[in-house]
Amino acid sequence: MYRIGSGAGFSGDRADAAIAVVAEIAAAGEGGAIMFETLGERTLALGQIARGQDATRGYEPLLEDILTPILRPAHEAGITIVGNFGAANPPAAAAAIRALADRQGIAGLKIAIVTGDDLHGRMDIATAERWDGDGRLAEFSGEIVAVNAYIGARAIAEAIASGADVVVTGRVADPALALGPLVAHYGWDWNDLDRIAAGTLAGHLLECGAQVTGGYFADPGFKDVPRPAEIGFPIAEVETDGSFVITKPAGTGGLVSERTVKEQLLYEIHDPSAYLTPDVTLDISDVTVRQIGEDRVRVEGARGRAAPEKLKVTVSYHGDFFGEAEISYAGPNALNRARLAQQTIRERIALLGLDVRMRSDIFGTVSVFDADSGVMLSQFTGGPDGDYRVRFAFDGEDRKAVERAVADVNALYCCGPAGGGGVRQSVRPRVRTLSYLAPRALVTPSFFFLGEETA
Q1: Start and end of every Acyclic terpene utilisation N-terminal domain (predicted)?
Q2: What is the per-residue pLDDT across 324-352, written as a single tens digit (0 to 9) for each?
């Protein structure tokens, strides 16, 4: 059996989540791995922007927070750390880990850096094939921030097989963070597509952290989850044939059930018979999910077919500027005062001739499901008294126009309506992304060890 756990499901996940996972795997005394999935499309673009401003940045901002408590125990227990926390700057992330190891007195830590995903300047976007999942989105014409391909698990597996204790990647397919350690441990043949599919499925169930242990599942009174503040992150116990059990550290909150596993199983799956990854086309249509004990669910039956010929590539662009501002109204007739605030700002945008788009919602009525036009809010029939917060959103190409619109919300303090309070406001540049397809020949994944030349 080989144990691989999850320490994060996105950038900004709980920084202490990995502690219990590493302790549980270490207690078994057989080594293993822990993966950190901390990279989204916009996260990567923001990393590129940060690297452009400071060559030592551009990696996961919480890197040191999440590794500080587990670097030494993982190393001592033979637990390999694999993470896409390198984001836009894996070498800088590796250097930060080396510095952390030095501060902790950890000698001989081998840190591998996976390369090959960055295609900026190497891909002709104007002639590239669009990914059909973005088919309805318009083309963008702004400055390109980042071009990154989703690469697979081979370089990760090769790095671990070469002795890596920590593997730092940029953009890789999320399940590859688990598949790489599994291939390195068991020596699975890349042509053994059912095992490659099984490892990919294990990674798919781990990639979102606590989603599979009851986090996103929780719905009080319908789907109760114990102690969510202490929720345990998942561990997959994988056998050599690719079957595995999903569980979590003993004594932690959350739960692992057939329902939590099935929810994550279907996450981002558009075709259960053909989940496309760089390593394999995964077929989950015959997968079985069976509760075999408390917080223990066996998963088996994954099938694999040849991987797609082309790789998905995310292209990030500098976009426009996005402003937000909020103000609250409470007490008698509060809803009508909130509506008047909306009307006032709408008229002010027109009077000032600001070239911005605007949306506003009144929290406490309808918001999440309403359209930009506010059609649901216009039909809201709730009483006028209550506690409401008006949220305005503006976007436009001219930063000053967006800033002026946001400032006018602040001006509602004295310009009315009556009783407004608690204004919060912000303006920030926005990044937009589109996905394309690239031929595999354009992408050459590899790795090297920190302090050494490319392998």
Answers
A1: 3-446
A2: 999 999 999 999 999 999 999 999 999 99
Chain-centroid distance of CA 334 in Å reads: 38
Separation in Å, CA 19 to CA 216, 236, 251: 21, 16, 13
Residues of the chain with CATH 3.30.70.260: 316-435
**Given this model, what pLDDT does residue 455 score?**
44
Q: Are 164 and 98 in contact (CB under 8 A)?
A: no
Give the gyration radius of the chain's Cα atoms: 24
The pair of three-digit structure tokens given for residue 240, joined into one six-digit string: 């050599």
DSSP state of 172: B
Q: What is the mean pLDDT of residues 256-271?
A: 95
Residues, the chain? 455
End-to-end CA distance of the chain: 30
Q: Is the pLDDT of residue 113 over 50?
A: yes
Tell whether the model's pLDDT for residue 454 goes beyond 60. Answer: no
Contacts of 219 (CB under 8 A, 6+ apart): none
Beta carbons of 151 and 445 less than 8 angstroms apart: yes
Give the largest Cα separation in the chain, rounded.
71
- C-alpha–C-alpha distance, residues 318 and 166, integer Å: 33
C-beta separation of 145 from 48 below 8 A: yes
> What is the Cα–Cα distance from 362 to 383, expressed in whole angstroms?
13
Q: Residues 37-44: what's their mean pLDDT?
A: 88
Q: Domain 316-435 adopts which CATH fold? A: Alpha-Beta Plaits (3.30.70)
pLDDT, tens only, 399-437: 999 999 999 999 999 999 999 999 999 999 988 889 999
